[in-house]
Recover the amino acids of this structure.
């Protein structure tokens, strides 16, 4: 970055966003610094972008475009690339008029465009077709993810969430011994990764690492990453990783909470874990966070400090999520018996006077499913 200008206004100019004086100041700064790109930290309409570019005689992009570009640079897997391309095309579609105004001429060619169709209309049609193809591809990926989640539904799933660059992947690797990509940059992780974690004895849970959040995340991007974000909304508990050395801790926590609400994960149980304590030696800050967020943990994914305590907390959380139960259903009720086999880790079963009696372990969150199915449930206190 070669320069920065800030303006506080009650209302932005509907045409150029800024007034004449500020526009002249921006143009002068671009000239003096020989800037090649202007980034506006907010959303612009296609018309505003075109007017700014014409006035400044330099390329102009807004915050969503910048975030999309960062995502595109970091996309590695087929899923991530598809998600980012879809978001980019949906962002581009309403802006095509500005890109192709110089090509609005009447043309026709067999198989490509109809009689009298302009270049702009052709490109819009091609972009819409590509968007439809990408959405179909993501629907297939979404179905694959649903199948994968069903296969591991008998395990508790703790999902990492947090602001980008909070150290989620580093902590994930520290706990699981995995080698997920770690980098000191925004959105280094775009794909979700799930690994097993043994806590004690036979207690085993699944940990899932997910894409980081950021303030004013583009709506198209959230929509495109819906299959990845469902890993968070379908988790049994969220591990909200927070960068303790960040200057705007509370703001970042609030941003993550807002995104979680947007993806229907706001009501899930969560554990706040403050990471990077090796870089933030501030006892007063720790005390304030403990008071504000009771039950939180403090760790360093780099030095390992606090990891044993975190594992103990995760063990206690996993135990609290389960319940032992006894279920009594008529032998002929195949529907509820099938549901029991899907949701209960059955330890024993027996027949008694026309009834089947199942004893086993179940996630407390799944109990309403059985009750709604008509099963009579007796909850037994779980012994660790």
């Amino acid at each position: 970055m070669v320069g920065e200008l800030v303006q506080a206004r009650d209302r932005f100019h509907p045409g150029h966003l800024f007034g004449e004086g500020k526009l002249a100041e921006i143009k002068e700064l671009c000239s003096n610094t020989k800037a090649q790109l202007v980034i506006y930290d907010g959303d612009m309409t296609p018309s505003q972008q075109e007017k700014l570019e014409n006035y400044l005689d330099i390329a102009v992009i807004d915050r969503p475009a910048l975030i999309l570009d960062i995502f595109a640079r970091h996309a590695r897997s087929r899923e991530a690339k598809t998600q980012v391309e879809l978001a980019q095309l949906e962002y581009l579609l309403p802006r095509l008029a500005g890109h192709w105004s110089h090509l609005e001429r009447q043309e026709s060619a067999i198989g490509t465009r109809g009689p009298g169709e302009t270049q702009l209309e052709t490109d819009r049609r091609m972009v819409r077709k590509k968007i439809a193809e990408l959405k179909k591809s993501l629907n297939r990926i979404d179905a694959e993810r649903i199948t994968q989640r069903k296969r591991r539904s008998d395990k508790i799933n703790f999902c990492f969430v947090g602001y980008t660059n909070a150290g989620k992947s580093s902590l994930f690797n520290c706990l699981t011994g995995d080698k997920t990509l770690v980098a000191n940059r925004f959105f280094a992780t775009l794909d979700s990764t799930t690994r097993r974690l043994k806590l004690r004895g036979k207690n085993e849970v699944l940990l899932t690492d997910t894409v980081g959040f950021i303030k004013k995340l583009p709506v198209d991007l959230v929509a495109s990453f819906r299959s990845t974000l469902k890993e968070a909304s379908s988790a049994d508990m969220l591990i909200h990783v927070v960068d303790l050395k960040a200057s705007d801790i509370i703001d970042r926590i609030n941003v993550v909470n807002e995104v979680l609400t947007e993806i229907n994960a706001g009501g899930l149980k969560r554990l706040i874990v403050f990471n990077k304590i090796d870089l933030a030696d501030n006892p007063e800050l720790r005390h304030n966070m403990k008071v504000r967020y009771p039950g939180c943990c403090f760790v360093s994914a780099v030095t390992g400090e606090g990891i044993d305590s975190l594992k103990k907390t995760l063990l206690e959380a996993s135990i609290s999520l389960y319940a032992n139960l006894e279920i009594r259903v008529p032998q002929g009720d195949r529907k509820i018996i099938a549901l029991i086999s899907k949701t209960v880790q059955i330890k024993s079963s027996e027949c008694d006077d026309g009834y089947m009696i199942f004893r086993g372990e179940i996630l407390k969150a799944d109990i309403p499913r059985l009750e709604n199915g008509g099963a009579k449930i007796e909850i037994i206190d779980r012994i660790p």
